[in-house]
Amino acid sequence: MAEPHNILVIRLSSLGDVLMSVPAVRALRQHFPEAHISWLVEGSVASIIAQQDFIDDVIYFPRGALSRHFKTGHFSTTAYILKDFLKNLRQRKYDLVIDLHGIAKSAAMMMLARGRRTIGFGSMFSKDMTHLFYRERVNGIQKRIHKVDRNMLVAGFMGCTEPVSDLPLRTHDESRRYISDFFQSHNIHPPVFAVNPFASRDSAFKRWPLERYADLIRRAIQDKMGSVVIIWGPGEREEATRLAAMAGESVHLACQTDIAQLYALLAQCSVYIGGDTGTTHLASAAQIPVVSLFGPTDFIVNRPYSRKSVIIRKDVPCSPCKNKTCKTRECLMNISVDEVFEAVRKITPGNEA
Questions:
Q1: Which residues on adjacent β-strands are paired with residue 6?
Q2: Terminal CA-CA length for the chain
Q3: How, if at all, do strands 93-99 and 6-10 pair?
Q4: Where are the domains of the chain?
């Protein structure tokens, strides 16, 4: 079969899942160096995807704007935005459309795009019966595999069998200067420990207690391990400020960032500590040591995909689960400050065994 000249990859969100799709897209670029590769994405992660040299074109689905105008009754504006998006999506004929998302919305966009071949996951990995809409389907031997490996099954299906280069993401000079100016103005010097106690808005059940993060930070400061920067995102600044007050002096709140700026910040850190959230995968992509705390989510499927990562979890009978109303949360509550601190100490550059 002829090599594709125009490829559309669909992985809309979220931050962590988009980042775990990068190796597969890099493999496509490596295998088809002359192809024009477009990526259909939504949300804030588009800002960093657009800066990557293995992507020729980013098509942005304006979900937020569509939802906002529709809810406020501005239907003509909603229709105009949707029409403009569809024009961008359909302006190119694609030899190959790959849906790495596997939900009803991504399958609908795949069908709206002008694609000759459509490839997606089979029933093992897809949702919403989307496997019925792909001309070609990819399954695996077992369902419980890491998302990077799952996405690589699609790349392998396309003949991408050579090892993929393990390179950091690219960021513009402006993002790096913004972070350097922040570090300089706040007298932050290496080693720097990035601490992210948060998770997405509907995933509070995945969070280790804020009080334990405060204890961990105090111990790091008492041992003079370095500077501590607390990472926060939209709607999290108030809690981040509270954590800084609980932890005491020598703790800094990160500056406000977009995803590309946050990546630049993490790339200047020595160690990252956080839970199962997209920022953890961003730190892993920045190729710094990562200590990640896993509770109810499946660490085999969602762990940071890096040799520089340490997973801390408890093997309780009910984990993994999706019980957001769990009363005991023993999978997280059984993780002690002592063991997290010891993991951080060991993984810190210069202290590795």
A1: 36
A2: 50
A3: parallel
A4: 6-157, 173-347
Indicate the pairing of strand 271-275 with strand 290-293. Answer: parallel
What are 287's two structure tokens? Answer: 């190729």
> How many Å apart are CA 60 and CA 86, to the nearest integer?
10
Quickly tell me which residue has 């009363």 as its tokens: 327
Q: Give the pLDDT of residue 173.
A: 96
Same topology, domains 6-157 and 173-347? Answer is yes
The beta-strand segments (E) located in the chain are 6-10, 36-42, 57-61, 93-99, 114-121, 136-138, 192-196, 227-230, 251-253, 271-275, 290-293, 309-312
Element (H, E) at 324: none
What residue type is 176 in one-letter code?
R
Phi first, then psi: what are they for 158, rounded to 5°?
-90, 5
Residues shown for the chain:
353
Per-residue pLDDT tens for 37-81?
999 999 999 999 999 999 999 999 999 999 999 999 999 999 999
d(CA 16, CA 23): 13
In the numeric block, the tokens 């334990």 are attached to 212
Ranges of residues in the chain with a pLDDT under 50 are none
What the block records as the tokens of 17 is 């899942």
Report the distance separating Cα 58 and Cα 37, nearest Å.
9
Answer whether 0.90 is exceeded by the pTM: yes
DSSP 200-252: -TT-GGGPPPHHHHHHHHHHHHHTT--EEEE---TT-HHHHHHHHHHH-SSEE
User: Which DSSP state fits 253?
Assistant: E
Q: Which CATH class is domain 173-347?
A: alpha beta
CA gap 69, 120 in Å, rounded: 31
pLDDT score of 188: 95
- Classify domain 6-157 at the CATH superfamily level: Glycogen Phosphorylase B; (3.40.50.2000)
Nearest to 293 by CA among 319, 320, 259, 331: 331
